[in-house]
Structures are given as C-alpha cells and as structure tokens.
Amino acid sequence: MPTSQVRWLDEREARAWRSFVEAQHRLEATLARRLQSESGMSMADYGVLVNLSEADDGRLRAYALGDSLQWEKSRLSHHLSRMEKRGLVERQECPTDGRGAFVVITGAGRTAIEAAAPAHVAHVRRYLVDVLTPQQLDALGDISEAILHGLQHEPSPCDEADPSPA
C-alpha cells in the first residue's frame, strides 16, 4: 500500500496502541519471571498444563492444544518433547485416528500446575486485576473480546485441517 493511502495513527490512537503494547509486554515479562523464579516453570509450560488440566480427562488432541496456544506444529512438538522428558505430559495414540495423538497431563504435571497456580494467580491479581476499578476490568474484558472477535477469521498457526501428530 502506498504511504499516501496509509491511515496513520493520530496522537490518541498512537497513545492507546503504544501503551497497550508496552503494558502487555511488561505484564507478560513480569509474570514469566515470577513464574520461573517461584516454580521453575516457563509460561509455555504453564499454558500447556493449564489447557490440559482444564480438559476432560486431562487430555487434548495435539492439534487442539496447538490451536488453543496459537503455536505452530513444530513448536508444539518440540515443547511437548521437552515436557515429556520432565514427566509433565505424555502423548498417546488416538484409537480413532492413526495420524492423530492425544497429549495427556501426568500426575507430575498436575502436581506442578497445582503448585504453581496459586502464586501465578496472585501475581495476575496484583499486577492486573487489583490495579483496575471494576468498571475498568469490565471495559478490559469488553475490549479484549472485541479484539478477539476482529481476529476470529485470521488464520491460525496451527493447521486444523491436518490433525496429524505433533
């Protein structure tokens, strides 16, 4: 697109965009540091384990987990291999689809997420929830849902059409 046709951000829009990006990055970095130092778990580990711990029977199809995390198949596969070596998850064949696999949280994985979650939630509360008024928290929820709605038709890095093993 030629620069003459670009709808540049005005001062108000640039302020909103830049403060959103900085807040998101700083919040993610702070939460990641806290999680790592207090539990030895990365945010990636935490994301995998949260999804599995909340799933029926503690298991998800690999492609569904990748889609939920917005990870490409190769990233998911490499990360799951590292987590398997640490005994946090295991992969199981899918009896109805020879190409697919389930990712299953292990007892050690459940213990790890149950140990890490209380402090992580306390930090989310400290750095996000408690610094906002109830109205701001509602607005943040509404804003986030509007952004997600606007992104719903964008392609996912995880190819859902190919549920082959991760």
Structural commentary:
With 166 residues, this protein is mainly alpha-helical. It has a domain at 40-133 and 157-166: Arc Repressor Mutant, subunit A. It has helices at residues 11-39, 43-54, 62-69, 73-85, 107-127, 134-151; strands spanning 59-61, 89-94, 97-105. It has a three-stranded antiparallel sheet. A hairpin with a 2-residue loop joins strand 2 (89-94) and strand 3 (97-105). Helix 1 crosses helix 5 (107-127) and helix 2 (43-54) crosses helix 5 (107-127). The radius of gyration is 19 Å and the shape is globular.
SSE blueprint:
Layout: H1 11-39, H2 43-54, E1 59-61, H3 62-69, H4 73-85, E2 89-94, E3 97-105, H5 107-127, H6 134-151
Antiparallel strand pairs: 1-3, 2-3
Helix pairs in contact: 1-5, 2-5
